[in-house]
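Work Package 3 (structural annotation) set out to generate three-dimensional models for the target panel prioritized at the project kickoff. During this period the team completed the workflow that converts sequence records into discrete structure tokens, so that structures can be stored uniformly alongside our sequence database. As a representative example, we reproduce one entry of 471 residues exactly as it appears in the project archive.
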Amino acid sequence: MEEKKTEGQKLNELLSYETKSAWEKISEAEKEQVFNFCSQYISFLNKAKTERESADELIRLAESKGFKNFEALNGKLNPGDKVYLSNRSKTIMLAVIGEEPIDKGINAVGAHIDSPRLDLKQNPLYEDSGLGLLKTHYYGGIKKYQWTAMPLAIHGVVIKQDGTKVNIVIGEDDSDPVFCVTDLLPHLANEQMQKKMSEGITGESLNILIGNEPYKDDKVKEKVKLNLLKIINEKHGIKEKDFLTAELEVIPAIKARDVGIDRSLVGGYGQDDRVCAYAAAIAIMEMEKPKKTAICVLADKEEIGSVGNTGMKSRAFENFLAELVEVTGEYSALKVSRALRSSRMLSADVNAAVDPTYDGVMEKRNAAFMGKGVCVTKYTGAGGKYQANDAHAEFLGEVCQLLDKENIVWQIGELGKVDQGGGGTIAGYLANLGMDVVDCGVALLSMHAPFEIASKVDIYMAYRAYLAFLK
């Protein structure tokens, strides 16, 4: 016989709020959907390890769902039409035209597809102590010691002197060689171990080991370097001067895969922010004819401040919206302004989940937890909300009510204790255009590390949240 609830218990259920694990709230049928969705996501992570590769793979998926290249179209667009625009192969924007005029506002989701990494310097190759090495400059916020003594791959493009573009991927296939940044043996690291963690490995010591065999010619000074140049030229047709204009990224040669005996987690490189980018892209690809035009923006350069003409500080998104106003009706600057002022956006970016090993940096009443659903972040910033977007209560309430209505498991989370540190997303740059914006994404463990962790149920809830919002 079920025990009768007291008046206090009833009142507590009515007035109190407590988050629960999303795993406990889903059925076995939905759990199967979670695992199927994340299986495809893992496949994406292993194909798309740079911003260029992410853009290429998502365009391929979009085209398979009926999206057309916006730049190849002529004439007007009608409700239900699906288009994408590639910005220098590093940023993509996908749109599904709605029934209402665009100046009535759009629903948008924005994420980023760049991730922390090591970039080769423009003149990287040198020889020292019989070893061939490459100089690097790290990109974004990394803990430099995490990038030593692990297998690394090289991805990117080289523009040869005749203008030919050469795509490079070395270290991903099982038959490929890999590369690494070396570290000191503990027997001789006494001085190094006395330094602060931030100083134990310096930026200029993140040099990539790529070879040891010398070219057999006593008349040559740098024999190892020459042998490496010979191999590179034979395989890729590249000379040393071609490095000057190349974009080559060094990333972990590690495959994304299930984590945990229960396979409830995903581990892999670049989940900040490809986990949200993938979920948002798949969501818009499943739309048909929304009431309001739906747009998904997947941007570059967020990890270094959203700068440049492929970052969210550029006018690329605003220009795309202006183009859509023109091809769905009649262009005017006033219509674009009205569209921005009337639009709503989810900034789809990750947050930090509570790690019980390091929980001292979190204020647990307002922190995100693994497995408790998609994380809504009212504000990021640092200290006194410096450089935060800080979404308005009206818009935040609207979003949370939508999530409840659609039975999407969600949680509220902030990025650590008030004075602990902080961070930012693309939210503020879009809010500057007049849009209502709030951050909404997946909580991660080991964010910005070469191997980040996400909960599968959170990934799936993020996808459902983006789909519901875009509709």
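The first helix runs from residue 7 to 15.
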